[in-house]
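#structure-requests
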Amino acid sequence: MPLILQQHIDQSILGLWKITEELSELEDQAQLSLSDAIAYSSFSSEKRKKEWLTTRVLLNKLVQKPCLIKHHDTGRPYLDSSDFNISISHTQDFVAILLHPTLTPGIDIEQSTREIGKVAPRFLSAKELEWCSREKTSQNRDLMLHWCAKEAIFKMIKSGNIEFSTDIAIEINDTDLESGRIQGVFTQNNTYKQISLEFLEIDKLILVWGIRND
């Protein structure tokens, strides 16, 4: 079944979809509005088409009705004619959505096997790099976990010009790895915000999500 995860957590709704359908199947399920159909017709890549359609199929499944996804000038998505706030992420053959009726959600999904060691110093602090280097066998997984956590927080913050290595800090210990819960801190100018995150490892994926509570 393509819908491999659906959770209601307090007021939030989390969904994860594995893309296994043919393009024609997704087109039949997506229930596109006229404006969406026009946008869809501009895509040439089949991969892009599948991701775009699957996002709408998953959203319709989670909220039980067709919703129109629009974007702010910053690129941040929002829903037209819906009370839900939305965050979206996708990686190869997977789409994830997090919804909340009043607060700001953030979600990120990546392949745990993606090699990012060479670029890690661009988005991690020296302390975070040291922690990720403690176990060579899990180093890449730990780097990806930090990356996904920072991306999830980034999607919750409306401020621009965020420097990942200094403005967003991730605090993880071995107990956190067992519990699936980690802490993040966003600091910029006079803003200091602690953000609780949750994560799952599933099907060679790392999925991190959270809700900004203000």
